[in-house]
Specification:
26 strands, disordered N terminus, 9 helices, Capsule synthesis protein CapA domain-containing protein, binds 2-acetamido-2-deoxy-beta-D-glucopyranose, single chain, alpha/beta, about 450 residues, six-stranded mixed beta sheet, ten-stranded mixed beta sheet
Length: about 450
């Protein structure tokens, strides 16, 4: 087609628009859908179980399929890296190290089941150091799955990757709140013009405990006993735990005498993540997906190590902060994962935030580390979100279970997701209704599927 005929066409389109001043404005933006799941943390063994193949069919029914790549993908036959000194599985360092890794066949199966977006920014990202992260990205990319959240530099780890399916394009940014200190990617530069450091895109948000005047006097006494020079005017004090500052705790005098926790969000990380999302609005993508790995509950505890009582599993305030900021910057959907159970769903400015999508593949059974696990730790969902010409159109929640249909974790199939039968589906959806209510979100249940009530 000549440029002349293009111009004629454009003029014709403009004329039609002018001639129809009363027709309803056409919403701009793309129509697209995404099936979101949580942590991949167990092999996708082949299975003919119709409840499992139904899960893969659901994932394939959407334009994009998302999961969090917890751990690494490499073959033990030819991997040349070694376990790092820190490991995302234990709050510990040294010793043997290491963590979960999976044979490359998993990458190809996940692609076949409809997955096309994987986050690798999480606490297990660096369990096998740089080599582990490279191998993982390479295998996933070879399978056709876009990986975000780790890279050869901070810029690369933070940058959006673009994925295209069914003529639709999404920009995809991933970050980790829960992370190991040595996994943090670096910007390079500085006075020596150093090379950037490979690693993960993290959001540092250490917790500060605020206590009233009498309790703060005790903190001062403890810090003086540690040999610190503490003046009477000080209102912000660290307590040492030895050797290195990563484990030190920080205490502040609370003005109102109330005890509370403050998540001290690192301004550079916050700005970097928000800007990376904002930049996607200038790309040719139809939409932007933001993923965050965050275990922390607002009580300050890591909510994935041992189960907390349900009221204590409210997501940490920093996760709500970055989710809102991400949407303000242009994200269309926020997918959070980390806890091995479901947290609530919020609709913020017409965009959904899933505060915990639980596990895609995982099953700890009913007992773990000497603790009885609540059945909710076996629950999960596939959340299918549809956008119609840029507007949130539908969120359908399909409950899934892992090992609770047999309570036998000795077979590899127990790790696989299974579409929940009616009693379990109803229980899971009731739970989601309960944990979503504080966000003002209502979920309507039709048969075994939950639909988030959207304002039209
Ligand atoms: C390592 O082994 C896996 C299979 O175990 C194979 O798919 C892969 O191509 C091998 N990688 C290299 C770099 O040789
Ligand atoms: C905080 O508590 C202390 C000791 O109980 C009291 O002296 C002080 O007035 C209280 N401050 C406020 C702001 O309530
Ligand atoms: C988007 O593009 C415009 C025009 O080139 C530019 O002024 C703006 O800074 C860009 N914004 C971002 C976030 O990159
Ligand atoms: C999130 O926290 C940062 C840093 O404290 C603050 O600047 C920002 O306004 C907060 N954003 C939202 C959306 O709450
Ligand atoms: C598995 O354990 C859960 C929790 O105790 C129980 O509700 C469920 O009935 C058990 N299922 C089977 C098949 O035993």
């Amino acid at each position: 087609m000549t440029s002349h005929s293009w111009k004629r066409r454009l003029l014709a389109v403009a004329a039609v628009a002018l001639l129809q001043p009363c027709s309803a404005a056409q919403p701009r933006g793309a129509s697209w859908s995404i099936a979101a799941t949580g942590d991949f943390l167990g092999d996708v063994v082949l299975s003919k179980d119709p409840r499992t193949t139904a899960v893969w069919d659901l994932v394939r029914s959407a334009d994009f399929g998302f999961f969090n790549m917890e751990g690494q993908i490499f073959s033990s036959q030819n991997f040349t890296g070694s376990p790092a000194s820190e490991n995302g599985g234990d709050n510990n360092y040294g010793n043997i190290g290491g963590g979960p890794f999976y044979d490359p066949i998993n990458a190809f199966r996940l692609a076949q089941y409809g997955f096309s977006l994987a986050s690798h920014a999480n606490n297990h990202a660096w369990d096998y150091g740089h080599e582990g992260a490279i191998a993982t990205s390479q295998y996933l990319n070879q399978a056709g799955i876009a990986v975000a959240g780790t890279g050869e530099s901070l810029a690369e780890a933070r940058r959006a990757v673009v994925q295209e399916r069914n003529n639709k394009r999404v920009s995809f940014v991933a970050a980790a709140g829960s992370h190991t200190p040595q996994s943090v990617a670096g910007p390079g530069g500085g006075s020596r013009n150093d090379r950037p450091r490979p690693g993960a895109n993290v959001l540092r948000a250490p917790v500060v405990t605020r206590v009233g005047a009498p309790q703060f006097e005790l903190i001062k006494e403890l810090s003086r006993a540690q040999g610190q020079l503490v003046s009477n005017e000080m209102t912000d004090i660290p307590l040492y735990t030895g050797q290195h500052p990563l484990g030190w705790s920080r205490w502040q005098l609370s003005r109102d005498n109330e005890t509370s926790l403050l998540w001290d969000i690192n301004a550079d990380d916050y700005t970097g993540i928000v800007e990376s999302i904002r930049a996607t609005k200038n790309s040719s993508s139809d939409a932007t997906v933001f993923s965050l790995h965050a275990h922390e509950a607002d009580s300050g505890a890591d909510d994935s190590y041992i189960p907390l009582p349900l009221p204590a599993t409210v997501p940490a305030a920093y996760t709500r902060n970055i989710s809102h900021a991400a949407i303000d910057a242009g994200a269309d959907i926020v997918l959070i994962h980390g806890p091995h159970h479901l947290r609530g769903i919020e609709i913020y400015k017409g965009r959904p935030v899933f505060y915990s999508l639980s596990s895609l593949t995982y099953s700890l059974g009913l007992h773990f580390r000497g603790v009885d696990l609540p059945i909710e730790w076996d629950d999960s969902i596939v959340a299918i979100t549809k956008f119609d010409r840029g507007k949130l159109h539908e969120i359908a929640l399909y409950p899934i279970v892992h090992s609770q249909l047999t309570n036998n974790t000795c077979v590899p199939e127990s790790q696989l997701p299974k579409l929940a039968p009616r009693p379990e589906a109803q229980r899971i959806l009731r739970h989601l209704q309960k944990v979503s209510k504080p966000f003002g979100t209502e979920i309507v249940v039709k048969r075994n599927v939950g639909y988030v009530k959207l304002s039209r």
